[in-house]
Each structure stands twice: as structure tokens, then as C-alpha cells.
Amino acid sequence: MKQWSRGAKVLALTSIGVMLVSLDITIVNVAFGSFVEQWPESRRTLTWIFSAYNIAYAAGLLTAGRLADAYGRKRAFLSGLFIFILGSLLCALSPTAIFMVGARVIQAIGGAILTPASLSLVLPEFPVERRSAAIGVWGAVGGVSAASGPTIGGYLVENFGWQSVFLVNVPLCVVAFIIGLRLLRESRDETAPKTVDYFGALLVVLGVGLLTLVIVQSDEWGWISQRSLILFAVSFILLMAFVLRCNKVAHPVLDLRLFKLPFVTAAAISGFVFTLGFFSMIFVNTQWLQTIWGFSPSLSGLAGSPGPLAAAIVAAPAGRLATRIGHGKVVAGGAVIMSIGILWMNLQIKPEVHYWDMFFPTIIFVGIGVGLCISTISSSATAFLPQPKFAMGSALNNTSRQIGAALGVALVSSMLVAASKTKDPTTGFHNAWLMMSGVTLLSGIVMVSLFRKPTADQLADASA
To answer: How many CA atoms lie within 13 A of 69 on its CB side?
Structure first.
């Protein structure tokens, strides 16, 4: 009981950081109108408030994971919190739009540092058989926070101004930092030298950063424009060079032997596909409520909140269920539920408001599927890792998901923009829901096909 009590404390503490990082991916969406009112001459620059955060966050994860394993996970978590606090304060005090874009990059760097470190601090506090349930809670906090961003952001903007969406981070981060100094235990990969392959880190930061840039700017540049194709080619070359570098050096940024573990490979691919559909769904549902049904930002956020609540309730039991029957089966079941729910939404929804009889029960149904998938994929990626690879494995999982999220939102945004120029703008929403239904089903198929339970030797390494 004493060990569980400490584990619960560490889990709750590290979840605060993950909650705020995930929240800041979506919370500023509803504040965009307020940013435009503040700086009307900088509308184009303001779009980078979202893009810069996503690019910097995705680009920094793998390097941050390697640094945490080499220099200490507690040190990384607390450093990430401090940088995130600094970035949040600078955002709230921004005198210009370009200043805020820079502050958002600082925020994202802090988030990229603390995210893999947070999960690697949780894992040693639980025996292997309890890790899936613990990661279920950890993953649910991140997913539900991202999904709740429009709700919380709408309330804060309407009642306290746009600065509040950044200032809300500060007291929670300060409390987590103070408690973390005393509660957390330092851990690291004792076999690794206290250095990092900086050339490899540069390759992956630039490669992932450029790939994410092409994705998030696809609306403006076009998918097959000369600029997009050139940057995609450069990104591909950099990432291939990174893979070759990881095979060559003794202590790479990413240990490619992780991909020999079937549960890691399954989670990376399935997580990429799942988040592509999940973040698309958040974006499209919010846009429908606001543009078609005419809901205010706060009302649209409130209307969508039953789904994240259902996911949060289901996530921890899903982790325990995965331990008993297998992660692949749980994710496959959740993906089927999500796919059916989204398809039903696509078939039944109409331009006339009918929230309680259709939208409300459907998003709860879909939320149950989200709860079965979102944290179970994370736990399959990290619960059975050996201790020296905790942060690196977590970073790999989060990088694949972040790129999937950016791609998903870019795809459905393109669909909505294209349809807005036609006689029936709702066709873009229907096309997006149809795509989401297929994508979420695919994530379950990938997981149940590729996931394999860890061997006895792998479990022994994870328990060591």
C-alpha cells in the first residue's frame, strides 16, 4: 500500500505537466479571434501561434528523451516545467504577435522536455503488471486535456481575456515544481555516457521539424506545391541520414533496437494513425458546432465535453483490461466503437440543431472508444520497456502521435476549406467524418495485427 501510495503521488504530479502541455495544443484555438482583435494587422503571423508550437514540440521530443535518459529524468521534468512556466508568462505578456510566436516556441520546448521524462518517472514506481493501468491514467489525462481545450479556453477567454489561457498554467506548474523537488527520485540510464550525439539530434530536430512544417502549412502552400515538395524531400533526406547515424554511433538519440520489440512498433504505427483520427475529430466537431449550429466558443466546448469525460472514466479500467486480455484486443475494440460512432454521426447529423437526441449520445459512445484506445496504445509502447529506455521509448511514442495529430488536422482543414467554396459547405464535414471513421478502424487493425505480448526475457528486463 505504501508503494502504491507513492506511485499514485508521482502519477498525479507528473500528470499535471502532461495535462498542461496537452491542453496548450488546443486551448488557444478558441482565443484566435481575440488575438486578431489585439493585433489585426498581424493575422497571417498569428497562425504561427499554433504551427510553431506543434513544430517545436514534435521536433524536440526524441532529443529530449535521450537527454532525460542520459542526464536524469527528474532533472529533465523540472527543467521542462520551468521552461514551460517561462514560456507561458511570456505569452501572456506578449506586446506583439511575433513575440507571442517566439514565446510559444519556448512553451513547446518545455513541453517536449517534460513529456517523456514524466512517464519515465512514473514507470519505476509501479510493478510491470500495474504499469498499464497507471499509463492508462497518464495517457487519459493528456488526451482528455487536449479534447477539453476548447471548453476551458472558451470559458477563460469570455470571462478573463485571452491572457488567462496562458496564465492558468503558471500556478499549477509552480506547485508541481515545488512538490517535485521533494517527491521525485532521480533516475537515468547508467550505461550511457553523459553526452548526446548532437549531430544526430540536429538531424532529427530538423527532419521532424520540416516534416511537421509541411503538414501544418499544407492549407496555405498546397500539398504538391514546389515549396512543399522540396521541404518534404529535404525532410526525408535528413531523417534517412538520422537513421543511418543511429546505426553508426554507440549511443544514438534513438536506439533502433526498440523497433525489434513488437509492442513498440505496433504502438508507434497505431498511435500515429489513431491520433490522426482523434485530433481530426476534435477539430471537425468543434467547427461544426460553431459554424453550422452557431454555438459560441464556450458553448461548443461545453457541448463536446461529455466525450472526453467518458474517455477519462474508461481509460484506467482499459489499462487493467489490457493486462488481462491483451493490448491489441482492447485497442481493436475501442477502434471499432469509435469507427461506428463517427460513421453514425456522419449519417445522422443535420444542419438543424439536434444535440440531445443525436450528438450527445454519439459523442459519449465515441468517447468510450477513445478511452479504450488512447492510453492503451501508450501503455503498450512503454509498460514493458527496460528501465534505461523509459524516456526514449516515451519520446518515440509521443513523436509518432504528434506528427499524426498535425497531419490529421491539416487533412480535415483542407477538406473544410475546399467545401466552403461550394454551394454546400457541409460536404467537407461529411468527407472528414468518413475519413476519420476509416482511419480509426485502421488503427485498431494495425494494433491487433502487430502487437505481441512481451516474452519472459523482456518482462524480466522490464521488471529489473
So the answer is: 29
Q: How far is Cα 449 from Cα 427, in angstroms, rounded to an integer?
A: 33
Q: What angle do CA 385, 389, 393 make, to 5 degrees?
A: 75
Q: What is the pTM of this model?
A: 0.85
Say yes or no: 85 and 130 in one domain: yes
50-109 pLDDT per residue, tens:
778 888 888 888 888 888 888 889 999 999 999 999 999 999 999 999 999 999 999 999
State the Cα–Cα distance between residues 197 and 398, nearest whole angstrom.
Answer: 20
Q: CB of 304 within 8 A of CB of 288?
A: no
Closest CA to 251 of 189, 310, 326, 182: 189
Is residue 373 within 8 Å of residue 310, measured between CB atoms? no
Residue 207 is part of which domain span? 197-250
19 and 100 both lie in a single domain: yes
Helix (H, G, I), strand (E, B) or coil at 168: coil
Alpha carbons 145 and 419: distance in angstroms, whole number: 30
Same domain, yes or no, for 413 and 311?
A: yes
Q: Which of 229, 250, 271 represents a domain boundary (last residue)?
A: 250
The amino acid present at 336, given as its one-letter code, is V
Euclidean distance between CA atoms 393 and 374, whole angstroms: 16
Task: Give the count of alpha carbons within 13 A of 189, CB side only.
Answer: 26
Q: Rounded to an integer, what distance in angstroms lies between the CA atom of residue 261 and that of residue 269?
A: 13
CA distance 14 to 172: 11
